[in-house]
């Protein structure tokens, strides 16, 4: 296995693709051209790929370089989201904008939205609480946060709401599970007879699954084990504990890299809306309204 590249090398590769020059990319990173060229050569050796065509007129990415550059951009965006999210978690008590979000939204979307809002308004102090959808609604009703993001299939009572994104739940198993080898779609009734690794009650993911199974005329799901976070459920499935139903956002990389396998279920609609919620009868203003604008234009 190749040694993982360092973040500065990934930033350098992205900048070379954007600027068309190792020298310009190096200057933007505060480095010299020889040092940047050496760093890029080291990255190419680690990955076993030629990433950059070097000419007298500048530098361009090879076909492999363009592919790796796309992956690098996603890694750097995820890192930005991690840092932004951590800052918001750390500063949630005295924030000018207090936000609560359900697990899936908080892990995959809210840090990006907050990061863009902070770039437009760098002086803004944002705090974030991460919990399940039921608790997010309670925090908004109690006035403990200004705005919340939930993944429940229906709009919470006594709150104004607006759709900000779409999502789809998927049935996933470990590659060693018998369902991973099925060529035909699974019947909904089969899903209801097998114990599943599930989120706790109050989770939007669990409520979406229960409602979808009820609409399909299936029996209630049978929990094998209840866990308090999407990450815990995902880890349990990878370890072979049992099947689960999780957000496509949460398992996309696991599916792409073969750690999990998606199982198609016939007649089960697992699409859902991700919503912003705020106190009923009020109009979102100020930073809360600005965050909603950022979220909706990212759809």
Automatic annotation (TrEMBL):
Keywords: DNA-binding, Transcription, Transcription regulation. It comes from the Bacteria. It holds the Pfam family LysR_substrate. PROSITE patterns: HTH_LYSR. InterPro entries: LysR_HTH_N, LysR_subst-bd, WH-like_DNA-bd_sf, WH_DNA-bd_sf. One of its GO terms (molecular function) is DNA-binding transcription factor activity. Residues 5-62 form the HTH lysR-type domain. Belongs to the LysR transcriptional regulatory family. This is LysR family transcriptional regulator. It comes from Haloechinothrix aidingensis.
């Amino acid at each position: 296995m190749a040694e993982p590249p360092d973040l500065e090398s990934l930033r350098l590769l992205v900048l070379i693709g954007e600027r068309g020059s190792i020298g310009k990319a190096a200057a933007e990173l505060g480095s010299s051209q020889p040092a940047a060229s050496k760093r890029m050569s080291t990255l190419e050796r680690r990955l076993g790929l030629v990433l950059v065509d070097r000419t007298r007129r500048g530098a361009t990415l090879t076909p492999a370089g363009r592919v790796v550059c796309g992956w690098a951009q996603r890694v750097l965006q995820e890192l930005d989201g991690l840092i932004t999210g951590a800052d918001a978690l750390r500063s949630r008590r005295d924030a000018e904008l207090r936000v609560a979000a359900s697990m899936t939204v908080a892990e995959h979307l809210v840090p990006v939205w907050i990061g863009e809002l902070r770039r437009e308004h760098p002086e803004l102090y944002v705090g974030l609480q991460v919990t399940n959808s039921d608790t997010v609604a309670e925090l908004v009703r109690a006035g403990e946060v200004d705005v919340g993001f939930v993944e429940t299939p229906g709009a919470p009572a006594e709150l104004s709401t607006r759709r900000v994104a779409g999502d789809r739940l998927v049935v996933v198993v470990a590659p060693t599970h018998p369902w991973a080898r099925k060529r035909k779609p699974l019947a909904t009734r089969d899903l209801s007879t097998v114990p599943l690794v599930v989120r706790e009650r109050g989770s939007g993911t669990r409520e979406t699954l229960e409602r979808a199974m009820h609409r399909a005329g299936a029996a209630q799901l049978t929990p094998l084990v209840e866990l308090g976070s999407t990450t815990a459920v995902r880890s349990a499935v990878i370890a072979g504990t049992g099947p689960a139903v999780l957000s496509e956002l949460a398992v996309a990389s696991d599916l792409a890299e073969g750690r999990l396998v998606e199982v198609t279920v016939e007649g089960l609609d697992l699409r859902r809306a991700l919503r912003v919620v705020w106190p009923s009868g009020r109009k979102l203003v100020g930073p809360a309204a600005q965050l909603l604008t950022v979220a909706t234009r990212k759809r």
